[in-house]
Design goal:
single chain; about 600 residues; alpha+beta; 18 helices; elongated
Length: about 600
């Protein structure tokens, strides 16, 4: 403590300019008033190293400010609560400044400290600068007007004692008053460069291991089971992340990996990292596979079971008129793997914004201790934590006979799509042809997500392999293309798909749409192009499928009538040919022409 006081006395005696002393008080009060350690503290320490400010004045100011902050913790919190809304624009600007953006501005005490700290620092800094100037002018007056003081200053023993007790001093008062102010610390610049090089060297050795451990732990906690990473390299200056051998254990079957990636590379945005957000420009993954056996079984983390309610749809049974349902309208009655589909739907349940939940104002919790006011968080707005702009997944082995080995490209993947206001896009293309593309856009957390997309190149024969063998209709060949659009949230799915089947061959196994199997088979065999409208409604956990069969029925009915006419005409023509010899000349031809006109009438 005495060394600090000794250093302050040396400032009065010429070791530093009054301007830099005032700046030291300002920075010290900002450093001490702001609770905790954040990006602002780190920036102030950098300024302390670079600027030629008296370190002792900074330390004493910081200690005084910290003491005041502890005493007036609740006052800082209350002040921050009051000022958060009026200063919202300034706070938003501060959040975009590198390093400063790492500060949690959701803590009102920080807002209060950043407001009152600089004000007190400026006032006390100006007072200190005035006192220093007054002291030096008094000192100059003594040197010029008092002979005894001059003689006393020339004593060597007294000079040594003076230096030991009070610290360094200018040669005389005139030198202290006329000395040129040095704003930057030469040694500080050197130290700053050395620290940067040292930090870079250390990061080359331990950064990757530290990040690897943190990423592994975070993914393990998120997955609920063991996640392994064989190797990880991170280059801090370029923001490039390279990962090899990612294995994500299946929590429901620890002998298998739910996800396995051979190599993964990512390019991060250093600016956004410096303000506390993970924005990844490009992610590339190769040889992605699912449900592969592990060399050693993984471990499951204990966690509470999430109870996802099955909430019935708020919409009416159908919002579209002129729809005829098939006999079975549950999704699981159409697809053999419906349980897997429902599990995936349940996984995305928590990520969909709930438009039925009315936002309730959050009352700030009461702190258990007085000093907890300094760390109390009072959220005023949402923030997104990560954003992946482009993710390319190559050689993805999907457990699907429709797609198989595919290439998947994702755009704008984030934890809060309504905040980024960017559309989430997915493009999946299989090696053997099928293509699926969709776009999902959330305008706000309370509005349903708008979804639209298209698909093409689907082989109907491959589709038949995932349909139940007991289906009334058996698809043998053909291609499927189509589009879909609608809205999506947890409690109300609303999707409409326009499906077109080209060069299709369908064989009915039994009577369908009121037609006998023989007539239905002939009717379907004469149809090579179909257009079907499908609707999916209900909650995410209990979706229902509706198919508009009126157009299909009308087309089949028309085909069946034509088939009946052809059969009747053929039977009559055969009978007429048998009796041509006994009938008058020209009667058979006239009747045939009449029947042809009758049966081909629209």
């Amino acid at each position: 403590m005495w060394l600090t006081i000794r250093g302050i006395i040396s400032v009065f005696r010429g070791d530093g300019s009054p301007t830099m002393a005032a700046l030291a008080v300002l920075l010290g009060f900002c450093f001490g008033f702001v609770p905790g350690f954040s990006g602002i503290h780190f920036l102030l320490l950098l300024l302390l190293i670079l600027l030629n400010i008296p370190i002792n004045v900074f330390i004493l100011s910081s200690l005084l400010a910290k003491s005041l902050a502890l005493i007036f913790a609740k006052a800082l919190y209350d002040l921050g609560v009051v000022l958060t809304e009026p200063l919202a624009a300034i706070i938003a600007s501060l959040e975009q400044i590198p390093i400063v953006g790492l500060t949690n501005f959701q803590r009102p005490a920080i807002i209060g400290a950043l407001t009152i700290g600089p004000i007190i620092g400026i006032i006390l800094g100006v007072v200190l600068a005035a006192i220093i100037l007054g002291f030096r002018h008094t000192w100059l007056s003594l040197e010029e007007n008092t002979q005894t003081f001059k003689t006393w200053k020339k004593s060597t023993a007294l000079w040594i004692l003076d230096w030991i007790v009070f610290g360094a001093s200018a040669k005389d008062a005139k030198t202290a008053l006329t000395a040129k102010t040095s704003y930057f610390r030469t040694f500080g610049i050197f130290v700053f460069i050395v620290l940067c090089l040292l930090a870079l060297a250390i990061s080359m050795f331990i950064q990757s291991m530290s990040i690897r451990y943190k990423i592994t732990q975070a993914l393990t906690n998120l997955n609920g089971a063991t996640v392994n990473i064989n190797s990880l390299n991170f280059l801090p200056l370029s923001g490039v992340l390279q990962l090899k051998g990612l294995e994500v254990t299946n929590p429901e079957k620890t002998t298998e990996n739910a996800l396995q990636v051979k190599e993964l590379g990512a390019e991060t945005d250093l600016y956004h990292l410096s303000i506390g957000k993970a924005v990844i420009e490009q992610v590339t993954a190769t040889e992605v596979s699912f449900d592969r056996l592990r060399t050693t079984p993984g471990q499951i983390l204990p966690k509470p079971k999430l109870d996802i309610p099955s909430i019935p749809s708020k919409s009416k049974q159908s919002n579209w008129p002129d729809i005829e349902r098939l006999d079975v309208n549950k999704l699981e009655d159409y697809l053999a793997k419906a349980e897997n589909i429902k599990k995936w739907l349940e996984k995305i349940y928590a990520w969909l914004p709930d438009t039925t939940a009315s936002p309730k104002p959050q009352s700030p919790p009461q702190p258990a201790h007085y000093l907890d006011y300094l760390s109390l968080v009072r959220p005023t707005k949402d923030h997104y934590q990560y954003l992946v702009k482009v993710a390319s997944l190559e050689k993805v082995r999907l457990d699907s006979k429709l797609f198989g080995i595919s290439t998947i490209q994702l755009h704008n993947i984030t934890d809060a799509p309504h905040l980024t206001n960017l559309p989430v896009r997915l493009l999946m293309q299989a090696e053997h042809g099928p293509i699926l593309g969709l776009t999902l856009h959330y305008a706000s957390a309370t509005a349903p997500g708008k979804i639209e997309g298209k698909f093409s190149g689907l082989d109907i024969a491959a589709l038949q392999q995932v349909l139940k063998p007991s289906q009334d209709l058996q698809f043998q060949s053909g291609q499927i293309t189509g589009t879909f659009q609608g809205s999506l949230n947890p409690n109300d799915v609303h999707l409409k798909a326009a499906i077109q089947l080209k060069n299709v061959q369908i064989v009915p196994k039994r009577a369908i749409f009121g037609l006998s199997p023989q007539i239905a088979k002939r009717a379907f065999s004469s149809i090579d192009n179909l257009q079907i409208s499908m609707y999916i409604t209900g909650s995410v956990t209990d979706p229902r499928v509706q198919i508009d069969t009126k157009k299909l029925w009308a087309k089949l009915k028309s085909r069946a009538i034509n088939i009946g006419k052809q059969q009747a005409q053929q039977v009559i023509n055969r009978q007429l040919e048998k009796h041509r010899a006994i009938l008058p000349k020209g009667v058979v031809d006239d009747i045939g022409k009449g029947l042809h006109g009758l049966f081909n009438r629209r």
